[in-house]
Write a structure and sequence with these properties.
CATH topology of the largest domain: Son of Sevenless (SoS) protein, Chain S, domain 2
Strand content: 5-15%
Shape: elongated
Protein name: Ras-GEF domain-containing protein
CATH superfamily of the largest domain: Ras guanine-nucleotide exchange factors catalytic domain
Domain Ras-GEF: 267-514
Helix content: 55-70%
Structural class: mainly alpha
Radius of gyration: 26 Å
Organism: Balaenoptera physalus
Number of domains: 2
Order of helices and strands: EEEEEHHHHHHEHHHHHHHHHHHHEHHEHH
Domain N-terminal Ras-GEF: 94-223
Mean pLDDT: 79
InterPro entries: Ras-like_GEF, Ras-like_Gua-exchang_fac_N, Ras_GEF_dom_sf, RASGEF_cat_dom, RASGEF_cat_dom_sf
Length: 526
């Protein structure tokens, strides 16, 4: 089991049942922190806390959407609201990097002036992290107030050119906001605030002026994005069933004539490619603000829940549920086979599929397959495993060894990330991390570092780190799958019957009888 301490009520079942994640997930020794799972896997126990606050993280790529800046430093030529180092009002900089500030100062730092425009990394990071402290519509209202105050000052100076320049920058900020986080504007209050701000900034613009045109284009794009997401959500709700996207759950073996996975696809590479298709389709429905729920849900559980919170949580749960379904499908395909020779072939087939997933960069499917083969009903089939050539499986388990905070996996992920950065083809761009481990990283970043410093400032350094992790994940989700889609194979993967836990054990015991007192007791109970 993989259950996240305080997050249990937020994320219904972050489980990797029977996977290499069971047992322990200690952080790297150099970090000074050591965490282990409790015996029932219900929570994380902190064993030691050293003076350091760092931990090994997935590699950082923070460039494509947000431009060249990756550190949060003030970029030359963009203007500044104060000094580049030391303190600037209620903002604290270190080596040109914003590390803390009051919420009010951070909000003011977001709003452009005639001579200043915020760095794009700051815009993304602040808009993403601000929801921990204030709902988007309230932030938008405060931005509107600051804009109004600045506009009134400019109007008093009667300099139309400067006023027009300021209006254009405000529209640019709103454009970046609506493109990065369109879901913030599904709220009626947020949409009303957006209309109020755009109305103010267009007052000085002539008919069919550039500012008005930019606002019209921005509004049209926003409405299209919201409509697309709304349609997707409606489709999800229609398809959603109590089984949560699973195929039928069986309590007994199906007829022998029923097709198995080898009857649909016997090529490990092709199956790995189709799994990658499904992964990229499902992960593409996750958005940055969805991932920020890991932090904001715990810190603001009852303060400002908006109508979209359940939707955001569902997108994460649905993707996590796909992992669990794939693990159970693997176990079902193995346990349902009657003959030992065919079971051996099935195990070797899935080992090859997992290896192909690894080569593609699809670590999530690879981990799900390994987890399925490590489930007790499969792992106990000793006579079957004795006939399997396990050298390949041992290599896969080495990559997913949980020691030193999954150091081997993180090294492989870093290699895939570097390959993606230098890729000449779309095939080399694919990186699909183990989602539960990615969520665990975000969760630890949040829990190890405080939101506020002793002086009351927001610990913005923490949110830079979280933002980098989330932005890197979003970069991976935007890759287009280069493999040809096979509807027949995908249909089987998504709708094939899955055994219940009890049915898996029954099938397993029928294939290889119980060997000890515990197994015999279980068999009697079943």
């Amino acid at each position: 089991g993989f259950v996240m301490a305080e997050a249990t009520d937020w994320f219904s079942d972050l489980s990797l049942a029977g996977s290499p994640l069971g047992g322990h997930g200690d952080l790297h020794p150099e970090s000074g922190h050591s965490f282990v799972w409790s015996p029932d896997a219900s929570c994380l126990i902190c064993c030691t806390l050293g003076p350091q606050e760092t931990m090994p993280q997935t590699s950082v790529v923070f460039s494509s959407i947000l431009g060249p800046s990756c550190s949060g430093q003030v970029q030359p030529g963009m203007g500044e609201r104060g000094g580049g180092a030391g303190s600037s009002g209620d903002l604290i900089f270190q080596d040109g990097r914003l590390i803390s500030g009051s919420l009010e100062a951070l909000m003011e730092h977001l709003v452009p002036t005639v001579d200043y425009y915020p760095d794009r990394t700051y815009i993304f990071t602040f808009l993403l992290s601000s929801r921990v402290f204030v709902p988007p519509h309230d932030l938008l209202a405060r931005v509107g107030q600051i804009c109004l105050e600045q506009r009134q000052q400019l109007e008093a100076g009667s300099d139309k050119a400067r006023l027009k320049s300021f209006s254009a920058k405000i529209v640019q900020l709103l454009k970046e906001w609506t493109e990065a986080f369109p879901y913030d504007f599904q709220d009626e209050k947020a949409m009303a605030e957006l209309k109020a701000i755009t109305h103010r900034v267009t007052q000085c613009d002539e008919e069919n002026g550039t500012v008005k045109k930019a606002i019209a284009q921005m509004t049209q794009s926003l409405l299209l994005s919201l409509a697309a997401r709304s349609q997707l959500q409606e489709l999800r709700e229609k398809l959603r069933s109590p089984a949560m996207d699973k195929g039928p759950i069986l309590k007994a073996k199906p007829p022998a004539a029923q097709k198995d996975i080898l009857g649909v696809c016997c090529d490990p590479l092709v199956l790995a490619q189709q799994l990658t298709h499904i992964e990229l389709e499902r992960v593409s429905s996750i958005h940055p603000e969805d991932l920020m729920q890991i932090v904001s849900h715990m810190d603001s559980r009852d303060k400002h829940r908006c109508r979209g919170d359940l939707i955001k949580t569902y997108s994460l749960e649905a993707y996590d549920n796909w992992f669990n379904c794939l693990s159970m499908l693997v176990a079902t395909e193995v346990c349902r086979v009657v003959k030992k020779k065919h079971r051996t072939r099935m195990l070797e087939f899935f080992i090859d599929v997992a290896r192909e997933c690894f080569n593609i960069g699809n670590f999530n499917s690879m981990m799900a397959i390994i987890s399925g083969m490590n489930l007790s009903p499969v792992a106990r089939l000793k006579k079957t495993w004795s006939k399997v050539k396990t050298a390949k499986f041992d290599v896969l388990e080495h990559h997913m060894d949980p020691s030193s905070n999954f150091c081997n996996y993180r090294t492989a992920l870093q290699g895939a990330t570097q390959r993606s950065q230098m890729a000449n083809s779309s095939r080399e761009k694919i990186v699909i991390p183990v989602f539960n481990l990615f969520v665990k990283d975000i969760y630890f970043l949040h829990k190890i570092h405080t939101n506020h410093l002793p002086n009351g400032h927001i610990n913005f350094k923490k949110f830079w780190d979280i933002s980098r992790q989330i932005h890197e994940f979003m970069t991976w989700t935007q890759v287009e799958c280069p493999f040809e889609k096979d509807k027949k194979i995908q249909s089987y993967l998504l709708t094939a019957p899955i055994y219940s836990e009890e049915a898996l054990f029954i099938a397993s015991f029928e294939s290889e009888g119980p060997e000890n007192h515990m197994e015999k007791d279980s068999w009697k109970t079943l």
